Structure formats: C-alpha cells, structure tokens
C-alpha cells in the first residue's frame, strides 16, 4: 500500500482547440508531474472530464498514459459510474498494463442506499483484476458513503485498499480512522484540507492543484507525512489562495488556465464546461508568479 502514500495527482485531460485529445500536452503534463516529485498518477478521474469522453478516447488515453509513464510511478485508472454491470464490463475489458489500481466513484444520480453502495462495490471487488480505491464525493454524487459502509467494505474485501474521501466531514474521517483496518488508506480528496487530514492519519492526497504545482504541493505533503508540520504549515498557507482560485469557476477550468500559463498544455475544456474567465485567469497567473518568488 506504500505506493499510494503521499501525493497522487488526478490528471487533467488536455484538449486541442478543436476539442480532440492533445497527446503532446498529456506527455508534457506527465513529465511535469514526475519531475515535480509527485508519488503516483491517476488517469481519467473526474478532473479528466471523463463524463465527456468516449470509450475509445478513454482506452487510448489510458494506454498512452501508461506508455509515457513507463512504470516510473504507480498508476491508477478512474473507472466508475452509476450502472454496476456496465462498470464491471469496463473493468473486465480494461488493459491493466502499467496500472496498479482502479479508483471507482460511488454511484451518482441513482442515490442508492448504503446497502446498495455496499453491494455495488462488492460486485466490483469480486471481478476486478486490480486493487480498488473507493471514491466518496457527495458534492457530485448526491449521496454520501457512510463510515460504516466504508469500513465494512474495507474489512470484507482485501482488494479494497483505500478511499479517496472528498466529503470534507471530519466527524466521518474520525470514524474511518478509528474503525478501519490498519492497512486501509484514507486519502484526502480535497486539496485545502490535506494538512489536517494527514495530521489525523490520512496517507496523503489525490490532488487537482498538483497538476500545476507538483513540487510545492508534494513537498508540503512529504513534510506532513514526516510529522514536520512546522515546515509544512507555511507551505500549506501559501497555497490557500491558488487553491481557492483553481476551483472558483469549477474544476478543471482553473488548473487548466494555470497549465496554459506554464506552457504545459492549452486551457480547452469540453462543453458543458467553459474556460476560466479572463479575470480569473489573470488572478491565477498573478498567484503563480507570487508563489514562484517564494520558491
């Protein structure tokens, strides 16, 4: 499980101006992140705009990401949805070459009961060739995975190895940490609360802002995991404004604006998402320039 300690980054999917996948931009991004010291990559999570991508596009992006990564870092694939049988077929058909785990979001829109969520993941765990990381993000799914359900799954299935939790609920985090198996990972799903979550015992973060600022973010996380919060806290606080700006007009428009400024890829997003406004883009650029002076 140590391969998923520290900073994972949920990769954006770069697009060309015509909306097609920008593979050169994706190559630039992967190398930018590896050179920036992050610990693992997550391909085609929510931040990758997967809701707007075809099955063929996903297959090609997964394969290309594995090729460019070339086993330099552990690699996780985002495979989730709200149709259990369809997700199971996607997992069975997935080419696992170069991948270590699957991140699977809790079913959205259906609003299943806790027993429904349990049975959903039970079905996936029993057919998955790779370890599973649960993903709880109530702000997108309209339902919360309870600590009881999370820990029940963690105890019942050895290949369910962790949860990315973006609920922001510290009562929930307390219960998970108290009741989970010792080797089950609680992973932050919210950039702004990574430091206090690690203080509670979380193993790290699957980050969005790390796309743009991998060195600053991964160094902060590394210090937290080493128990050096005296060093980590100023770094955490220096990232507060950039993190706020990255999400103020939705994800991933803000971080794509930052990547455009850093000359990694352009800032194209697919409808119904739209690019960051000119005003926000300027604020993001100013904040990056400020952070570069602190480095």
Automatic annotation (TrEMBL):
Enumerate the residues marked as the site Part of a proton relay during catalysis: 46, 109
Positions annotated as active site in the UniProt record? 135 (proton donor/acceptor), 164 (schiff-base intermediate with substrate)
The first-level EC class reads lyase
Give the protein family. Belongs to the DapA family.
- Where's it found, cell-wise? Cytoplasm
Q: What is this protein called?
A: 4-hydroxy-tetrahydrodipicolinate synthase
Q: Which GO terms describe its biological process?
A: diaminopimelate biosynthetic process; lysine biosynthetic process via diaminopimelate
* Pathway annotation from the record: Amino-acid biosynthesis; L-lysine biosynthesis via DAP pathway; (S)-tetrahydrodipicolinate from L-aspartate: step 3/4
Taxonomy, top ranks, is: Bacteria, Pseudomonadati, Bacteroidota, Sphingobacteriia, Sphingobacteriales
Q: Which residues form a coiled coil?
A: none
Q: Which residues bind pyruvate?
A: 47, 206
* One cellular component term from this protein's GO annotations in UniProt: cytosol
Q: What does this protein do?
A: Catalyzes the condensation of (S)-aspartate-beta-semialdehyde [(S)-ASA] and pyruvate to 4-hydroxy-tetrahydrodipicolinate (HTPA).
The reaction(s) annotated as catalysed by this protein in its Swiss-Prot or TrEMBL entry are: L-aspartate 4-semialdehyde + pyruvate = (2S,4S)-4-hydroxy-2,3,4,5-tetrahydrodipicolinate + H2O + H(+)
Q: Does the keyword Transferase apply?
A: no
So what EC number does this one have? 4.3.3.7
Extract the Gene3D superfamilies matched here. Aldolase class I (3.20.20.70)
């Amino acid at each position: 499980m140590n391969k998923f300690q520290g900073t994972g980054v949920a990769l954006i999917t770069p697009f060309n101006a015509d909306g097609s996948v920008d593979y050169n931009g994706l190559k630039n991004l992967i190398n930018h992140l590896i050179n920036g010291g992050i610990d693992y990559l997550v391909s085609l999570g929510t931040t990758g705009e997967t809701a707007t991508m075809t099955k063929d596009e996903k297959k090609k992006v997964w394969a290309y990401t594995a090729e460019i990564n070339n086993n330099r870092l552990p690699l996780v694939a985002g495979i989730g949805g709200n149709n259990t049988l369809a997700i199971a077929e996607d997992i069975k058909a997935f080419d696992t070459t170069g991948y270590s785990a699957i991140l699977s979001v809790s079913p959205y829109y259906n609003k299943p009961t806790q027993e429904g969520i349990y049975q959903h993941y039970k079905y996936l765990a029993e057919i998955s060739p790779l370890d599973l990381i649960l993903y709880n993000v109530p702000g997108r799914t309209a339902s919360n995975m309870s600590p009881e359900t999370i820990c029940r799954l963690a105890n019942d299935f050895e290949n369910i190895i962790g949860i990315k939790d973006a609920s922001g609920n510290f009562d929930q985090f307390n219960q998970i940490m108290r009741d989970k198996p010792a080797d089950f990972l609680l992973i932050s799903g919210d950039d702004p609360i990574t430091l206090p979550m690690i203080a509670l015992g979380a193993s790290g973060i699957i980050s969005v802002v790390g796309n743009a600022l991998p060195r600053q973010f991964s160094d902060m996380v590394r210090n937290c995991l080493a128990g050096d919060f005296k060093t980590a806290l100023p770094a955490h606080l220096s990232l507060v404004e950039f993190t706020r700006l990255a999400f103020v007009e939705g994800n991933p428009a803000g971080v794509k604006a930052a990547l455009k400024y850093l000359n990694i890829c352009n800032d194209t997003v697919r409808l119904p998402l739209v690019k960051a406004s000119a005003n926000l883009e300027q604020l993001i650029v100013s904040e990056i320039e400020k952070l570069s002076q602190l480095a």
